[in-house]
Amino acid sequence: MAIINQATKELQVKIVYYGPALGGKTTNLVQVHNNVQTAQGSKGKLVSLATSSDRTLFFDFLPIEAVAIKGYKTKFQLYTVPGQVIYNTTRQLVLRGVDGIVFVADSQYEKMPDNVQSFANLEDNLKSLNLSLSEIPYVLQYNKRDLPTAAPVEYLEYLLNNRETQAPSFTAAASSCQGVFETLNMITRMLLHKFINESQRRVA
Ligand SMILES: Nc1nc2c(ncn2[C@@H]2O[C@H](COP(=O)(O)OP(=O)(O)OP(=O)(O)O)[C@@H](O)[C@H]2O)c(=O)[nH]1
Ligand SMILES: [Mg+2]
To answer: Pick from 21, 1, 19, 20: which is nearest to 11 by CA?
Structure first.
């Protein structure tokens, strides 16, 4: 849950990277961790709880502190869920208190069923927390664009972003950091807009 402190002008938000197994969620956090210093502000330690083969077992966690935005000292807590289907209980736990979501889809044709299944699983898990995508800011990232087997963006849009209010979507090749900060900047902007504007309106 976002924590906003008007007195100290501090805002803390939780962003969860969600998506199918091996889609590139952990890679996004690794790239943010490696490159954030110059781009956005100070960073904390990247904590990864993974198996020996680098599959996320519980989650990854990366706190980053942005330079003051609109006079607020802003802390973003970035989490990834384990994408493997069997770890659903863990995904539900990590989603608790989520403020914003980045859905990392794998662009490869053969991964489309996994993408669709993971997106439906996200909606189900939000529902079990009495939440829905209509109230939680989220963005889509179509990752692995560098691979020759990547499906056209229009196809991904049709499968994952075919609704009345479309979410912002970004193409990415997270392993070479392409699109990683574009995605993060958009979700943080959406969250700042939501929380700072809302709370200023309440105060006014
Ligand atoms: N070619 C290519 N490979 C990528 C890209 N992004 C990630 N990968 C590779 O895909 C594999 C899986 O990436 P991870 O970041 O571990 O995927 P994940 O979504 O965290 O997977 P789980 O933890 O199992 O849910 C790794 O070998 C990455 O190097 C990309 O943009 N292009
Ligand atoms: Mg992972």
So the answer is: 1
**Environment class of 92 (CB within 10 Å of its CB; exposed 0-12, middle 13-18, buried 19+):** middle
Cα four-point dihedral sign 177, 32, 66, 81: positive
Give all strands (DSSP E) within 89-195, no chain letters. Answer: 100-106, 138-143, 169-171
Please tell me the distance from the alpha carbon of residue 154 to that of residue 139, in angstroms, as a whole number.
16
Q: Cα–Cα distance between 103 and 183 in angstroms, integer? A: 10
Nearest CA to ligand 1 atom 25: 83
Instruction: Give me the number of domains the chain comprises.
Output: 1
Q: Which ligand is nearest to the CA of 85?
A: 1
Span 122-166, pLDDT tens digits:
999 999 999 999 999 999 999 999 999 999 999 999 999 999 899
Instruction: State in Å: Cα 39 to ligand 1 middle.
Output: 22
pTM, 2 dp? 0.93
Give the domain range for residue 107: 3-203
**Domain CATH for 164:** 3.40.50.300
132 Cα distance to chain centroid? 15
